[in-house]
Design brief:
With 508 residues, the protein is mainly alpha-helical. It has helices at 2-5, 14-35, 43-61, 66-79, 81-100, 102-113, 119-134, 137-155, 159-176, 181-190, 194-223, 230-243, 252-262, 267-285, 287-294, 300-314, 323-329, 338-356, 359-370, 374-391, 395-412, 417-429, 439-448, 452-455, 460-475, 499-507. It starts with a helix and ends with a helix. Belongs to the NhaC Na(+)/H(+) (TC 2.A.35) antiporter family.
């Protein structure tokens, strides 16, 4: 063992850096080709674990000890601890909100208020406003967004387009909110103030969102799927009113969640508090629903405890005789998030090994040297951020690494740090939900009930934000310049502790 530890550590070769990425491309592509969207229920997770093993073997080949590989994996797990508890809390919340009547009430009111012709655009605007207030794309998508997807299902519009609209709005609000952890983190990494960062990235975020709104309006005006007729909607409304006591009091858990999020209570605690509150309101307002769900005789208190416990653990289930309502409301539970966590564990561990053992930097350095013009430099930053979201599977890595690696180069070329902060957000933050095995993409698919690859073409904001950033870099529009100067480049080092940023970045 001492002989193994004494081996000299070698710098990774280009082949070392490429082999894990080629393995990832082959295994992910093969799983999608063989299993289609079913690949997300196990084959892709298996592919990520195998890719992690390949990266570990390369680290060992270059002289690193197995203990160092294990320590890197432990840091990867620690970095997503916050995201794990958020996901489990979201699963619990979806279960109890379905059971308590919170989501049925949102759906009932939404069907009456939202017209199919402007439903997509309205969904984007609603989620954008809420995310800007509470500063979290994850909380917005898993609550209001999930309700909007449910409304869309009953209206007969496309769940994929609705999910794209929800994500577009959620990430707009997240990027422009001074309460957003990712916004604060990006500004800190590049060493600019949060207001400066928000003002600069508004130049890409607002136009990208407006382009998305126009496209959503066109899709709603007849270019999208045909909607169901009014008779079907009336049947579904009647069934919801028959099964649940529809009242505004059912929205108390939502009001509590909004309040706690605005007060910056940690997301996992706020979500769990809202889930438990839904169990309490359900016991008071929906006693028959809870009794039917448990299916066993017992007093009101025992029934409420068992129903809430089951809804949080394995989700709520109901049989109304209307397939669309059953599919909408029979969801949730912490157990429903286990497949998503499997994806996140595999992806983040793989990305952390690539980062800490120098494989990512081996690929980035040649790209940096080749970026001779401002347009090429911008394209390199955006490409690295998107690439890290794909290969590392974690928004945190896709934000931190480009900010550290390119900060010195931007200063050397006389480019203001606000340019880099905007690029990091446009490349790292908004592209994360477009990758199925990324922590954000996996979360959005689980929370909204729509596979990532289905909503991807309609997440217009997440597509146009980086494209506008690239266009600005090529044309020189809204590029701020400063006096060129030299600063010491920052290189990502293995952390001795994950710090709060990892979980915060994952939360959005």
């Amino acid at each position: 063992m001492n002989a193994v530890q004494a081996r000299p550590i070698r710098e990774p070769s280009l082949a070392d850096a490429l082999i894990p990425l080629v393995t990832l491309a082959v295994l992910i592509g093969g799983s999608l080709a063989l299993f289609g969207l079913g690949a997300l229920s196990g084959p892709i997770q298996t592919a990520l674990v195998l890719c992690t093993m390949v990266a570990a073997i390369i680290a060992l080949k270059n002289g690193h000890s197995w203990e160092a590989v294990q320590a890197s994996g432990q840091r990867a797990m620690a970095s997503v601890t916050s995201a794990v508890f958020i996901l489990l809390a979201v699963g619990a919340l979806i279960g109890t909100w379905n059971m308590s009547g919170t989501i049925p009430t949102l759906v009932y009111l939404g069907i009456q208020l939202l017209e199919p012709s402007w439903f997509y655009a309205a969904s984007a605007l609603i989620c954008g406003a809420i995310a800007m207030v509470i500063g979290s794309s994850w909380t917005t998508a898993s609550t209001i967004g999930a309700g909007l997807v449910g409304i869309g299902v009953l209206l007969g519009v496309s769940p994929a387009i609705t999910a794209g609209a929800v994500i577009s709005g959620a990430y707009l609000g997240d990027k422009l909110s001074p309460l957003s952890e990712t916004t604060i983190l990006t500004a800190q990494l590049v060493k600019v103030t949060v207001p400066e960062h928000i003002r600069r990235q508004a130049w890409t975020s607002v136009p990208a969102f407006l382009i998305g709104l126009v496209l959503f309006a066109l899709l709603g005006l007849g270019f999208g799927p045909e909607v169901v007729d009014g008779v079907s909607t009336e049947i579904e409304l009647g069934k919801l009113g028959e099964m649940f006591n529809i009242t505004l009091w059912n929205l108390l858990p939502l009001a509590l969640l909004m309040l706690l999020s605005f007060r910056k209570v940690p997301a996992s605690l706020a979500l769990m508090a809202a889930a438990l509150t839904a169990g309490l309101t359900g016991a008071i307002l929906q006693p028959q629903v809870l009794h039917n769900f448990v299916g066993e005789p017992g007093g009101p208190l025992l029934t409420a405890i068992k129903a809430t416990w089951l809804a949080m653990a394995t989700g709520f289930h109901i049989q109304t005789g209307v397939a669309e309502i059953d599919q909408l409301l029979s969801r949730g539970g912490m157990s429903s998030m286990l497949s998503t966590l499997w994806i996140i564990f595999g992806a983040v561990t793989f990305g952390t090994l690539l980062d800490e053992f120098g494989l990512i930097m081996r690929l980035i350095n040649p790209l940096l040297y080749a970026a001779k013009t401002t347009g090429r430099l911008f394209a390199t930053v955006l490409g690295c951020s998107l690439g890290l979201n794909i290969v590392a599977g974690d928004q945190y890595i896709a934000l931190v690494l480009p900010a550290r690696v390119f900060r010195a180069e931007f200063a050397k070329r006389g480019l203001a740090p606000t340019n880099l902060s905007r690029l990091a957000a446009d490349g790292g933050t908004v592209t994360s939900p477009l990758v199925p095995w990324n922590s954000c993409g996996a979360f959005m698919a689980a929370a909204l009930g729509v596979p990532t690859l289905l909503y991807l073409p309609f997440a217009f904001f997440c597509i146009f934000s980086p494209l506008l950033s690239l266009l600005y870099g090529i044309t020189g529009f809204k590029i701020e310049r400063i006096e060129p100067h030299l600063i010491e480049p920052e290189v990502a080092q293995p952390a001795t502790a994950p710090g709060p940023q990892a979980g915060q970045a994952a939360e959005g």
